[in-house]
Amino acid sequence: MSQIDQSQGLTCPNCSGVVPIPEGARIVQCPFCEMQSIVQGERGIRRWQVARQVERLQALEKVNGFFSGMKKARDLKQEAQIKEMFLIYLPYWRVQAIVAGWMFGRVKSGKDSTRPIEVEVLEEMHWNDAAVDVSEYGVHRVSISKNQLQPYDGDRLYAEAMVFDPSESRTDALAEAEQHFIYRARKKRSLRTKFFEKFHLLRQRLSLVYYPLWVARYEYKKRNYQVVVDGVNGEVLYGKAPGNILYRAAALVLGMALGNLMLVDGTALAVVLASTSDDGDGGWLVLLPIAIGIGLIISGYRAFRYGEEVEEIDRKNKKASMASDPKKRLESLLSGSGDVEALMSGGLNFLEEIGRLKD
Known about the structure:
Number of strands: 13
Helix content: 25-40%
Shape: flat
Number of domains: 3
Radius of gyration: 27 Å
Order of helices and strands: EEEEEHHEEEHEHEEEHHEHHH
Largest sheet: 9 strands, mixed
Structural class: alpha+beta
Number of helices: 9
Protein backbone atom coordinates (compact mmCIF):
# COMPACT_ATOMS: atom_id res chain seq x y z
CA MET A 1 0.00 0.00 0.00
CA SER A 2 1.39 3.45 -0.88
CA GLN A 3 2.35 6.08 1.65
CA ILE A 4 -0.61 8.23 0.54
CA ASP A 5 -3.08 5.57 1.69
CA GLN A 6 -1.58 5.42 5.20
CA SER A 7 -1.88 7.73 8.21
CA GLN A 8 1.50 8.69 9.70
CA GLY A 9 0.51 10.94 12.60
CA LEU A 10 -0.04 8.35 15.40
CA THR A 11 2.63 7.14 17.80
CA CYS A 12 3.15 3.79 19.47
CA PRO A 13 2.13 3.85 23.18
CA ASN A 14 5.07 1.56 24.03
CA CYS A 15 8.11 3.00 22.21
CA SER A 16 6.69 6.30 20.86
CA GLY A 17 7.60 5.32 17.31
CA VAL A 18 5.49 6.43 14.35
CA VAL A 19 2.95 3.75 13.42
CA PRO A 20 1.65 3.74 9.81
CA ILE A 21 -2.07 2.92 9.73
CA PRO A 22 -3.61 1.72 6.44
CA GLU A 23 -7.03 3.20 5.74
CA GLY A 24 -9.77 1.02 7.23
CA ALA A 25 -7.41 -1.13 9.33
CA ARG A 26 -8.50 -1.92 12.89
CA ILE A 27 -5.39 -3.74 14.18
CA VAL A 28 -1.91 -2.35 13.47
CA GLN A 29 1.61 -3.37 14.46
CA CYS A 30 4.45 -1.06 15.44
CA PRO A 31 7.38 -1.50 12.99
CA PHE A 32 9.90 -0.88 15.83
CA CYS A 33 8.75 -2.85 18.90
CA GLU A 34 6.18 -5.02 17.09
CA MET A 35 3.51 -4.17 19.63
CA GLN A 36 -0.02 -4.63 18.27
CA SER A 37 -2.71 -2.02 18.90
CA ILE A 38 -6.38 -1.68 18.07
CA VAL A 39 -7.50 1.50 16.30
CA GLN A 40 -10.73 3.12 17.43
CA GLY A 41 -12.58 6.11 16.05
CA GLU A 42 -14.42 7.27 12.96
CA ARG A 43 -13.87 4.85 10.06
CA GLY A 44 -14.82 7.34 7.39
CA ILE A 45 -17.56 7.32 4.77
CA ARG A 46 -17.98 4.52 2.26
CA ARG A 47 -17.74 5.79 -1.31
CA TRP A 48 -19.35 4.07 -4.26
CA GLN A 49 -19.92 4.76 -7.92
CA VAL A 50 -22.54 3.62 -10.41
CA ALA A 51 -21.25 2.54 -13.81
CA ARG A 52 -22.43 4.44 -16.87
CA GLN A 53 -24.58 2.29 -19.17
CA VAL A 54 -25.83 4.89 -21.68
CA GLU A 55 -23.62 6.16 -24.50
CA ARG A 56 -23.66 9.70 -25.84
CA LEU A 57 -25.67 8.88 -28.98
CA GLN A 58 -28.33 7.09 -26.92
CA ALA A 59 -28.66 10.08 -24.62
CA LEU A 60 -28.90 12.36 -27.65
CA GLU A 61 -31.88 10.37 -28.94
CA LYS A 62 -33.64 10.81 -25.58
CA VAL A 63 -33.05 14.56 -25.73
CA ASN A 64 -34.60 14.74 -29.21
CA GLY A 65 -37.60 12.83 -27.88
CA PHE A 66 -37.94 15.36 -25.06
CA PHE A 67 -38.63 18.11 -27.62
CA SER A 68 -42.09 16.63 -28.33
CA GLY A 69 -45.06 17.34 -26.06
CA MET A 70 -48.33 19.25 -25.87
CA LYS A 71 -47.04 21.72 -23.26
CA LYS A 72 -43.99 22.71 -25.32
CA ALA A 73 -43.63 25.05 -28.27
CA ARG A 74 -44.96 23.45 -31.44
CA ASP A 75 -41.82 24.18 -33.47
CA LEU A 76 -39.37 23.17 -30.73
CA LYS A 77 -38.27 19.98 -32.47
CA GLN A 78 -37.43 21.86 -35.67
CA GLU A 79 -35.89 24.99 -34.16
CA ALA A 80 -33.94 23.59 -31.19
CA GLN A 81 -30.17 23.41 -31.68
CA ILE A 82 -28.12 21.30 -29.28
CA LYS A 83 -24.96 23.29 -28.46
CA GLU A 84 -23.15 20.89 -26.13
CA MET A 85 -23.56 17.56 -24.38
CA PHE A 86 -21.33 16.29 -21.58
CA LEU A 87 -21.18 13.69 -18.82
CA ILE A 88 -21.11 14.51 -15.11
CA TYR A 89 -20.96 12.49 -11.90
CA LEU A 90 -23.01 13.96 -9.06
CA PRO A 91 -22.50 12.79 -5.45
CA TYR A 92 -25.56 11.53 -3.58
CA TRP A 93 -25.82 10.74 0.11
CA ARG A 94 -27.33 7.30 0.61
CA VAL A 95 -28.65 6.11 3.97
CA GLN A 96 -30.05 2.68 4.71
CA ALA A 97 -31.48 1.63 8.06
CA ILE A 98 -33.93 -0.73 9.69
CA VAL A 99 -36.84 1.32 11.02
CA ALA A 100 -38.45 -0.21 14.10
CA GLY A 101 -41.23 1.41 16.09
CA TRP A 102 -44.83 1.54 17.22
CA MET A 103 -47.84 3.79 16.96
CA PHE A 104 -50.80 3.68 19.34
CA GLY A 105 -54.13 5.28 18.54
CA ARG A 106 -57.67 4.72 17.40
CA VAL A 107 -59.21 3.96 14.01
CA LYS A 108 -62.79 4.18 12.82
CA SER A 109 -64.92 1.12 13.51
CA GLY A 110 -68.45 1.29 12.15
CA LYS A 111 -70.35 4.53 11.67
CA ASP A 112 -70.17 6.09 15.11
CA SER A 113 -67.40 4.34 17.00
CA THR A 114 -63.65 3.85 17.07
CA ARG A 115 -61.41 1.10 18.35
CA PRO A 116 -57.87 1.14 19.76
CA ILE A 117 -55.08 -0.18 17.57
CA GLU A 118 -51.36 -0.83 17.84
CA VAL A 119 -49.29 -0.45 14.67
CA GLU A 120 -45.88 -2.12 14.53
CA VAL A 121 -43.27 -1.00 12.01
CA LEU A 122 -40.21 -3.11 11.17
CA GLU A 123 -38.79 -2.50 7.71
CA GLU A 124 -35.49 -1.77 5.99
CA MET A 125 -35.66 1.61 4.26
CA HIS A 126 -33.37 3.54 1.93
CA TRP A 127 -32.98 7.27 1.31
CA ASN A 128 -30.78 9.30 -0.99
CA ASP A 129 -30.37 12.98 -1.75
CA ALA A 130 -27.94 15.13 -3.69
CA ALA A 131 -24.84 16.09 -1.71
CA VAL A 132 -24.41 19.29 -3.75
CA ASP A 133 -26.62 22.14 -4.91
CA VAL A 134 -28.57 20.73 -7.88
CA SER A 135 -30.68 23.80 -8.66
CA GLU A 136 -29.07 23.82 -12.13
CA TYR A 137 -29.60 20.12 -12.81
CA GLY A 138 -32.86 19.57 -10.90
CA VAL A 139 -32.24 15.93 -9.93
CA HIS A 140 -32.50 15.69 -6.13
CA ARG A 141 -32.93 11.90 -6.03
CA VAL A 142 -31.96 8.96 -8.22
CA SER A 143 -32.88 5.29 -8.20
CA ILE A 144 -29.94 3.37 -6.74
CA SER A 145 -30.00 -0.38 -6.15
CA LYS A 146 -27.46 -2.29 -4.11
CA ASN A 147 -26.40 -4.35 -7.15
CA GLN A 148 -25.36 -1.20 -9.04
CA LEU A 149 -22.78 -0.08 -6.47
CA GLN A 150 -19.11 -0.39 -7.40
CA PRO A 151 -16.00 0.67 -5.44
CA TYR A 152 -15.14 4.31 -5.99
CA ASP A 153 -12.37 4.88 -8.54
CA GLY A 154 -11.68 8.61 -8.57
CA ASP A 155 -8.96 8.52 -11.22
CA ARG A 156 -11.22 6.79 -13.73
CA LEU A 157 -14.18 9.08 -13.07
CA TYR A 158 -12.13 12.27 -13.40
CA ALA A 159 -10.68 10.99 -16.67
CA GLU A 160 -14.14 10.20 -18.04
CA ALA A 161 -16.31 13.12 -16.94
CA MET A 162 -16.80 16.17 -14.75
CA VAL A 163 -16.97 15.05 -11.09
CA PHE A 164 -18.53 17.19 -8.34
CA ASP A 165 -17.36 17.09 -4.73
CA PRO A 166 -19.95 16.92 -1.92
CA SER A 167 -20.81 20.20 -0.19
CA GLU A 168 -23.66 19.16 2.12
CA SER A 169 -22.62 17.93 5.55
CA ARG A 170 -23.18 14.34 6.63
CA THR A 171 -24.99 15.62 9.74
CA ASP A 172 -27.65 17.32 7.62
CA ALA A 173 -27.95 14.21 5.46
CA LEU A 174 -28.53 11.94 8.46
CA ALA A 175 -31.11 14.36 9.89
CA GLU A 176 -33.04 14.49 6.59
CA ALA A 177 -32.90 10.72 6.26
CA GLU A 178 -34.32 10.28 9.75
CA GLN A 179 -37.23 12.64 8.98
CA HIS A 180 -37.94 10.75 5.75
CA PHE A 181 -37.96 7.38 7.52
CA ILE A 182 -40.37 8.74 10.15
CA TYR A 183 -42.62 10.07 7.37
CA ARG A 184 -42.73 6.65 5.68
CA ALA A 185 -43.32 4.86 8.97
CA ARG A 186 -46.29 7.11 9.75
CA LYS A 187 -47.76 6.36 6.33
CA LYS A 188 -47.98 2.64 7.17
CA ARG A 189 -51.34 3.22 8.84
CA SER A 190 -53.62 6.24 9.04
CA LEU A 191 -54.90 6.78 12.59
CA ARG A 192 -57.94 8.84 13.44
CA THR A 193 -56.43 9.71 16.81
CA LYS A 194 -52.81 9.13 17.76
CA PHE A 195 -51.75 8.76 21.39
CA PHE A 196 -48.11 7.72 21.13
CA GLU A 197 -45.40 6.96 18.60
CA LYS A 198 -41.77 5.98 18.86
CA PHE A 199 -39.36 4.99 16.09
CA HIS A 200 -35.78 3.73 16.21
CA LEU A 201 -33.21 3.54 13.40
CA LEU A 202 -31.17 0.34 13.62
CA ARG A 203 -27.98 -0.48 11.70
CA GLN A 204 -27.92 2.93 10.11
CA ARG A 205 -25.29 3.20 7.36
CA LEU A 206 -24.25 6.30 5.43
CA SER A 207 -22.42 6.23 2.12
CA LEU A 208 -21.62 8.54 -0.79
CA VAL A 209 -22.58 7.42 -4.30
CA TYR A 210 -21.36 9.08 -7.51
CA TYR A 211 -24.07 8.80 -10.18
CA PRO A 212 -23.64 9.45 -13.95
CA LEU A 213 -25.83 12.01 -15.73
CA TRP A 214 -25.77 13.29 -19.30
CA VAL A 215 -26.36 17.05 -19.59
CA ALA A 216 -27.50 18.58 -22.90
CA ARG A 217 -27.74 22.33 -23.47
CA TYR A 218 -29.69 23.61 -26.44
CA GLU A 219 -30.77 26.93 -27.91
CA TYR A 220 -34.26 27.94 -29.06
CA LYS A 221 -34.81 31.42 -30.52
CA LYS A 222 -31.68 32.76 -28.79
CA ARG A 223 -32.69 31.37 -25.40
CA ASN A 224 -30.77 28.58 -23.68
CA TYR A 225 -32.33 25.51 -22.01
CA GLN A 226 -31.08 22.29 -20.48
CA VAL A 227 -32.01 18.59 -20.38
CA VAL A 228 -30.60 15.96 -17.98
CA VAL A 229 -30.60 12.26 -18.98
CA ASP A 230 -30.00 9.32 -16.64
CA GLY A 231 -26.63 7.76 -17.45
CA VAL A 232 -27.78 4.31 -16.31
CA ASN A 233 -31.25 3.68 -17.77
CA GLY A 234 -31.49 6.51 -20.32
CA GLU A 235 -34.58 8.24 -18.91
CA VAL A 236 -34.99 12.01 -19.08
CA LEU A 237 -34.85 13.09 -15.44
CA TYR A 238 -35.11 16.85 -15.80
CA GLY A 239 -35.61 19.35 -18.56
CA LYS A 240 -36.67 22.88 -19.43
CA ALA A 241 -38.39 23.97 -22.63
CA PRO A 242 -40.36 26.94 -24.02
CA GLY A 243 -44.11 26.69 -23.41
CA ASN A 244 -47.03 26.44 -25.84
CA ILE A 245 -49.24 29.55 -25.77
CA LEU A 246 -52.32 27.62 -26.96
CA TYR A 247 -51.94 25.07 -24.17
CA ARG A 248 -51.58 27.86 -21.60
CA ALA A 249 -54.80 29.54 -22.74
CA ALA A 250 -56.71 26.24 -22.79
CA ALA A 251 -55.47 25.36 -19.30
CA LEU A 252 -56.67 28.70 -17.95
CA VAL A 253 -60.14 28.38 -19.50
CA LEU A 254 -60.64 24.75 -18.47
CA GLY A 255 -59.27 25.36 -14.98
CA MET A 256 -61.65 28.24 -14.37
CA ALA A 257 -64.63 26.39 -15.85
CA LEU A 258 -64.12 23.10 -14.02
CA GLY A 259 -63.12 24.86 -10.81
CA ASN A 260 -66.28 26.96 -10.72
CA LEU A 261 -68.36 23.88 -11.61
CA MET A 262 -66.93 22.05 -8.60
CA LEU A 263 -67.39 25.06 -6.32
CA VAL A 264 -71.05 25.58 -7.25
CA ASP A 265 -72.59 22.28 -8.34
CA GLY A 266 -70.13 20.08 -6.46
CA THR A 267 -70.68 21.92 -3.19
CA ALA A 268 -74.46 21.78 -3.64
CA LEU A 269 -74.31 18.03 -4.21
CA ALA A 270 -72.04 17.58 -1.19
CA VAL A 271 -74.48 19.52 1.00
CA VAL A 272 -77.31 17.21 -0.07
CA LEU A 273 -75.24 14.10 0.62
CA ALA A 274 -74.07 15.45 3.98
CA SER A 275 -77.62 16.27 5.07
CA THR A 276 -78.81 12.72 4.34
CA SER A 277 -75.76 11.03 5.88
CA ASP A 278 -76.07 9.29 9.25
CA ASP A 279 -72.38 9.80 9.92
CA GLY A 280 -71.67 12.62 12.33
CA ASP A 281 -68.65 13.68 10.30
CA GLY A 282 -70.62 14.00 7.06
CA GLY A 283 -70.33 17.78 7.25
CA TRP A 284 -66.63 17.57 6.34
CA LEU A 285 -67.67 16.18 2.95
CA VAL A 286 -68.70 19.71 1.94
CA LEU A 287 -65.08 20.83 2.07
CA LEU A 288 -63.96 18.29 -0.53
CA PRO A 289 -65.44 19.96 -3.67
CA ILE A 290 -64.37 23.36 -2.34
CA ALA A 291 -60.76 22.19 -2.02
CA ILE A 292 -60.80 20.54 -5.45
CA GLY A 293 -62.45 23.57 -7.08
CA ILE A 294 -59.93 26.01 -5.62
CA GLY A 295 -57.12 23.67 -6.63
CA LEU A 296 -58.34 23.50 -10.24
CA ILE A 297 -58.63 27.28 -10.48
CA ILE A 298 -55.18 27.85 -9.00
CA SER A 299 -53.64 25.17 -11.23
CA GLY A 300 -55.22 26.66 -14.35
CA TYR A 301 -53.92 30.11 -13.44
CA ARG A 302 -50.44 28.79 -12.66
CA ALA A 303 -50.31 26.92 -15.99
CA PHE A 304 -51.13 30.18 -17.80
CA ARG A 305 -49.03 32.50 -15.66
CA TYR A 306 -45.88 30.39 -15.45
CA GLY A 307 -46.27 28.25 -18.58
CA GLU A 308 -43.98 30.40 -20.68
CA GLU A 309 -41.21 28.03 -19.63
CA VAL A 310 -41.97 24.35 -19.01
CA GLU A 311 -40.00 22.50 -16.34
CA GLU A 312 -40.37 18.72 -16.34
CA ILE A 313 -39.15 16.50 -13.51
CA ASP A 314 -40.42 13.11 -12.40
CA ARG A 315 -41.84 12.91 -8.88
CA LYS A 316 -39.41 10.14 -7.95
CA ASN A 317 -36.50 12.51 -8.68
CA LYS A 318 -37.78 15.32 -6.47
CA LYS A 319 -36.61 15.79 -2.91
CA ALA A 320 -37.88 13.01 -0.63
CA SER A 321 -40.85 13.83 1.61
CA MET A 322 -40.13 14.37 5.27
CA ALA A 323 -42.16 14.36 8.47
CA SER A 324 -43.75 17.78 8.96
CA ASP A 325 -46.53 19.56 10.75
CA PRO A 326 -50.05 18.79 9.36
CA LYS A 327 -50.85 22.52 9.31
CA LYS A 328 -47.94 23.14 6.92
CA ARG A 329 -49.19 20.40 4.59
CA LEU A 330 -52.66 21.98 4.56
CA GLU A 331 -51.19 25.39 3.71
CA SER A 332 -49.16 23.83 0.88
CA LEU A 333 -52.28 22.14 -0.50
CA LEU A 334 -54.40 25.31 -0.44
CA SER A 335 -51.62 27.49 -1.88
CA GLY A 336 -51.63 25.50 -5.11
CA SER A 337 -47.94 24.68 -4.93
CA GLY A 338 -48.58 21.25 -6.47
CA ASP A 339 -50.07 20.22 -9.80
CA VAL A 340 -53.65 19.20 -10.60
CA GLU A 341 -53.01 15.53 -9.97
CA ALA A 342 -51.51 16.20 -6.56
CA LEU A 343 -54.44 18.40 -5.56
CA MET A 344 -57.02 15.88 -6.72
CA SER A 345 -55.36 12.94 -4.98
CA GLY A 346 -54.84 15.03 -1.85
CA GLY A 347 -58.51 15.87 -1.35
CA LEU A 348 -59.21 13.02 1.04
CA ASN A 349 -55.95 13.63 2.87
CA PHE A 350 -57.06 17.25 3.25
CA LEU A 351 -60.24 16.18 5.06
CA GLU A 352 -58.30 13.73 7.18
CA GLU A 353 -55.84 16.40 8.31
CA ILE A 354 -58.66 18.79 9.20
CA GLY A 355 -60.25 16.05 11.28
CA ARG A 356 -56.99 15.52 13.13
CA LEU A 357 -56.60 19.23 13.83
CA LYS A 358 -60.17 19.32 15.12
CA ASP A 359 -59.45 16.48 17.54
